[in-house]
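**Fold tokens**
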Amino acid sequence: MTQAVALGEAARGQTAPNPNVGCVIVRNGEVVGRGATASGGRPHAEAEALSQAGSQAEGSTVYVTLEPCAHSSPRGPACADLLVAARPQRVIVALEDPDPRTTGRGIARLREAGIALDLGDGADEARHSMAGWLTRQRLGRPRVTLKLALSIDGKVALPSGESKWITGEDARAHVHLERAQSDMILVGRGTFLADSPKLDVRLPGLEERSPRRALLSRGEPVDGWEMLQSPQDVHRLHDVNDLLVEGGSVTATAFLNADLVDRILIYRAPIIVGEGKSSFGYIGLDAIADAHGRWRVSDGRALGVDRLEVYERVREA
């Protein structure tokens, strides 16, 4: 299952509107098939792995990070039906599919065919990997990640607006990896005018994984950019699982005010700016007590001379 999760994670940012699923098929202790959801969402991970395994899928154990789909689609057959036809001995599923077209039906179909099925192995890891798609299923919008590069004292730029470069090469490389795992990246009009950002991926081997670009603005449309007039417009992004927001304190404040940020990445450099531009404006809090309990630390690590801090929004289930 660890391998299956890793395969799905490697596909994150490429599979929307479908989930980034991973699948591994094992027979007699050897891996005979591997698959992940393909770019654009098809073929599904199970179809890829079964194609690789061929006849060796019979009597095997299949590890898959999400319940095999059970609904028909013009884009391809239901994975539950493919597995029934392949006749594995056992299927291990990390997560039940929340999509009402499949929920429980894929599992039931396999069990009815006499295939042993276990549910829940690797659930936390799979849930983390598919957080974007799961957020869209639960909230009707992408998972929104806010990225900020800050000084020790929480500044994003000098008073003049200069901000290149607050962080070092290792932190910037990590940002490009986050871009490669996102379906869309967004900035505000101010960042667009000041920096003319390309927002592409410049990591060797991942250049083709640059996400779609979006601009938060009520102004005139810009060629090559998708326009969002307000943060609430993320609810119409039905083909985006992971949205990365990179653009400036005004945009960051707008998304926080709308309570649409699910994850914050802070790349903190060991510098003190003093007087400068703050990371956020007013976000509607009138008492310190109201700020507590809203965020939890989920990760932290050194990136060269800089420090990455990851925070997750605490929401009721």
In short: Residues 132 and 241 are 5 Å apart (CA to CA).
